[in-house]
Structure formats: structure tokens, C-alpha cells
Amino acid sequence: MKQKTDAYLGLKEQTFVFNLKMVLLQLLLGSIFLCSISCTESTAKTTSRVAQLPYYTEASFTPQWLDPSVDTIAQIHTVPAFNLTNQNNEAITEATVAGKIYVTDFFFTFCTGICPKMTDNMKLVQDAFKDDPNVLLLSHSVTPEHDTPEILKEFAEAKDVIDGKWHLVTGPRNEIYDLGRNQYFVEEDLGLDKTEADFLHTENFILVDSNRHIRGIYNGLNKVSIAQLIADIKTLKAE
């Protein structure tokens, strides 16, 4: 009797182990399937191409699809002239970006919140176009009273910023805040009146074409969005 009981218990244990393995196998296959869908969707999003990127002319970022050959292109919002100073104490003006595509954002060196992740992701853009002289990066300090060229230089060296490719800029606070809010439309607080006293803090990256027209807005904290930004730069170069 004991032998039969032991045999029965042994068979039951083997059945339990077998069923457990099957459940684990199904979970594994399900995970692989979900991953394949996710990866496919991500790849499709970041490798998709359009013949032309839209233009953006105001803070709602409503896309406008325009023919660059028609006269209305001259009426599209253009980032105005500016005069700032980079980490090498060099003047950075609209002449610096003339004829070049550039990505811009707003940060401060002692930020412990969103800025470190934004810097890491901007570096991905830098690395993708480090050998392309026609693509620049422009990061504005929103605490210019603290972020002097000397401090920006220390920050640049710590973050492997490439001189001439990625400009960390400081300057008059009112000019930087006006650029961010009224020219790049970098904030998303539509309908709210803000002054220079209201702190400017946003994760958005803005893509600007060689004529200083805004062509895209991206979440600087999101790797998929950064991959799309890199893809869109390539599309813009091909226009």
C-alpha cells in the first residue's frame, strides 16, 4: 500500500512540475510576443520618414504643412536675432546657426530634477551628428545669474560636450526667457500670462531648421521621442 501511495505522490509531483513548466513557458512566450510588438511599433515610429516636416508658428504647436517654394514660407514664424555667450566665452548669435539645423532646450547646471536626463538625451543627439557640421545644439541656462561661462565650461567638460557642436549659453535673463516663451514656445502653459519672475522649466526640445523656422517639439526625457528627433533631423536634411 505504501509503495502505491509513494508512486501516486511521485506521479502527482511530476504532473505538478510539468504543469508549472508549461505555465512558465507560456508566460515566457507571451512576454516575447509582447516585446516583439512593442519593439516593432517603436522601430516603426522612429524609422518612419516623411518627405517634409511641418512648420510651427505658435504655442499650440499646430502643424502647418507648407510648400517651401511658395511665398507664404516667408511669413512663417522665425526665431529672431539673439546675442548670448557660450561656455568658451564666445558670442553666440543668429549668425552662429545661419544655414544650420539646430536643436535647442532650456536647463540649469545645478538642476537635480529633469535636467540630468535631458542632458544625457541631448548627448545622444550630439553623438548621432558629431561629424556633421550642419547640425548644432543650443542649450540655454534659465539661471544665467549663476551659470557664468566659467561654470558652463566646467559643466561642459563633465558632460563630454563637444565644443563647436553643442553650445551651452548664458546671457541676459530677459532675453533667454523671451526666447524660450515667446520665440521657441518651449512651455506648454497655454493661456497663462507669465513674467520673467516666473521660473522657466521644461523638458521640451525644439527642432529649428536652417532658416530659423520651428519644425518639431520633442520630450527630452523620452528615449523614443529622442529617436524620433534624430530621425526628423535626417528628414530635414533631405528636404
Provide a descriptive summary of the structure in words.
- This protein starts with a helix and ends with a helix.
- Helix content is 41%, strand content 15%.
- The strands form two sheets. Strands 5-4-3-6-7 form a five-stranded mixed beta sheet.
- Residues 1-9 and 27-45 have low confidence and may be disordered.
- The chain is α/β, with parallel strands linked by helices and 239 residues long.
- It has helices at 2-47, 115-128, 149-158, 173-183, 223-238; strands spanning 83-85, 91-93, 101-107, 135-141, 166-169, 204-208, 214-219.
- It has five helices and seven strands; from the N terminus they run H-E-E-E-H-E-H-E-H-E-E-H.
Concise synopsis of the structure shown:
The chain is of the alpha/beta class and 239 residues long. It is built from five helices and seven strands; from the N terminus they run αβββαβαβαββα. Helix 1 packs parallel to helix 5.
